[in-house]
Amino acid sequence: MLRSAVGRIQVAVLGLVLAGTGVARAQSTYVVNDTHFHLTNYVQQGTSIQEFLKLMGGKVGRVALFGIPLQQTWSYANTGDFAPTYYLQTDAPLYYYSFTDAFIAMTYRSLTPQQQARFDPMITGFNPADMYAADHIKRVLQTFPGVFSGIGEFTIHKEFVSAKVAGETASLTNPALDRILDVAGEIGLVVLLHNDVDMPFPRPGQDPYSVVQLAQLFKRHPKTTVIWAHCGLGRIVHPVKDQIGMVERGLSNPELPNLHVDISWDEVAKYLVATPETTRAVADLINRHPDRFVFGTDEVAPKDEASYLKVYRLYEPLFALLTPEASEKVRKGNYERLFDEARRKVRAWERANPL
Ligand SMILES: [Zn+2]
To answer: What angle, rounded to 10 degrees, do the helices at 209-220 and 243-252 form?
Structure first.
């Protein structure tokens, strides 16, 4: 009797050890975490979470998960029977679609605890020009406790998008945005903010006012953990003169201790690895500030592994020039540090502030 009990315990312990090794082995195959991923598109359609887990496979460990807060209107007056799925396909306006947060929360809740551990859902369904936006963020946390780790990607200045949003145009100087960053700092939410570094077609010598306003905004919220999406670059928005120097000055500024930069989006990779010289210069910048850069794909509703990991492949020449320490941090470590801390702080806030 006793012997069989011991036997069972031994088997159980062996099982745990094997399960432990299995987990360790699975984790060691992960090559990257993704700080920037849209499960759904501009008309709230996308990849099912179970399909997406297959795309992550053994390569992508953890993902910051969100939809897109802006819904493209299908205006019959504008496009007739053509149903636009992207903002460049119609002149009809975009509007803030708060239901995306409930959708992402319910998607997360459909997962097993082991699957949930691989996601950090983000709140996006608020209007950053609305003084009530901060209240929406708190309400989402209280309605879906145990789910969210951050806010974003949300957008202030974005080529072709900001001008299409119905209602007041978002601005870096709007106190509504200060309220959002205050609340994020107070709760411990990671902020993923898209703000173009410049306008799409600046006149020669035009002042990139956005950079100045952005630096002032970040300096007003030094305790808020911010990831500046794509270091401000876009499809058309080019690096400003001395972009690398500008980012370096920001990261070296003691007034900006919590500023981070993501290198997501294939449209951004086209600048950062454009030539061997730029790849080298960007690698040197990251090697000097290895704690401040994070990898993201910025893929929207991908259909297969090749399209999901396209941006990762584009950056392979860049990763090859990083020190082993910087490469590990940019691909995985910085994500884990930022989001582990956010999970801990946000859960504590939710326990202290039940609905
Ligand atoms: Zn994005």
So the answer is: 10
d(CA 124, CA 271): 27
Please name the amino acid found at residue 57. Answer: G
d(CA 355, CA 343): 19
Going from the Cα of 3 to the center of ligand 1, the distance in angstroms, rounded, reads 59
pLDDT tens digits for range 277-329: 989 999 999 999 999 999 999 999 999 999 999 999 999 999 999 999 999 99
3-state secondary structure of 194: strand
Q: Are strands 70-72 and 259-262 parallel, antiparallel or unpaired?
A: unpaired
> CA–CA distance from 52 to each of 37, 134, 259, 313 (Å)?
11, 30, 29, 18
pLDDT tens for residues 200-220?
Answer: 666 666 667 788 899 999 999
Is the CB of residue 282 less than 8 Å from the CB of residue 248? no
- pLDDT of 255-289, one tens digit each? 999 999 999 998 888 888 889 998 999 999 999 99
Ion ligand 1 residues within 5 Å by Cβ: 153, 298
* 248 CA from centroid of ligand 1 (Å): 23
CA 322 to centroid of ligand 1, rounded, Å: 24
Is residue 122 within 8 A of residue 150, CB to CB? The reply is yes
Report how far ligand 1's centroid is from the alpha carbon of 64 (Å): 11
Element spanning 66, H or E: strand 60-66
From its phi and psi, is residue 57 left (phi > 0), alpha (psi between -120 and 50) or beta? left
Q: What is the pLDDT of residues 146-167, one digit of tens each?
A: 999 999 999 998 878 888 988 9
* Dist. CA 264 → ligand 1 center (Å): 8
Nearest Cα neighbor of 156 from 136, 121, 129 is 129
224 is written with which tokens? 């808020």
Q: Are 185 and 221 in contact (CB under 8 A)?
A: yes
Q: What distance in angstroms lies between residue 286's CA and the mean position of ligand 1's atoms?
A: 21
